[in-house]
Amino acid sequence: RRSALPRAAPLPRCPDRSRVAPIRAPAAAPLRRPLACEHTAVLPPADPMNAPRGAATAATAAKKAAKTAKLAAAASTLGLGLVALVGAAATLLPRHLLDACNWTRHPDVRRAFSTDECYRLLDAAVQAAPKAARRDAADVLFHLVESTRREGALWLGLGLGSLYALAVPFDQRHSALFVLAASGSLAALVDASHAGLLGFGATEMLTDRGRSGARVLCAYWLVALPCLWAGCVGSRAKARAKDELMGRTHTVLRKACSGGNLKIN
What global pTM score does this model have? Predict the structure, then answer.
């Protein structure tokens, strides 16, 4: 007995794959020889010596820079040590920082007279001036005494500054080295004039023992000043190279944090 319900539509049949043409890759173009009119660029073979030569040059330059920095650091250490040693000796032995007439302790004077006698000599110099100019003469001698004490203070300060510069890294010494080298260069001019090597300034009160002492100081400056100046130049160069490296590193880090949107020159 047939049902009164409508019959469902039949499902579509799968296509017959045997009748579908297979998909094939396009055939490759046949090879042909280039024509005579077609110029083909032929690259020369790579020279295996070029890359190693450049790397070797960079490595040699880096080694040379490192060696120069080591020599400059050693020179600065020697110069600073000399300034610290002489500064302490020049201040603590005569002790003219405390009293200008303590120069009687100097080896050239050898305590030929006492400190009180030194002041009596200075007072006699004031009394030898004309009566109307004695006050001015006293002021002149006061400034000479004050300058003597100030020189002792400066020598001690240079020695302490040298000790401090020895305690910091080499790339941070250039400021202290420049101050010491510049001060020492000016002092060397005065000593050279007293030694009879340069005509710089007045030398009317020069004595034979004073000339001999000035020559000893010139020999000292001849060793200390090249060390100080070489250390100053080398320290400044190392500080500049370190700043450039830190700048490039900071730029790379900024680019990495920005997702690669930062342009690096």
Answer: 0.69
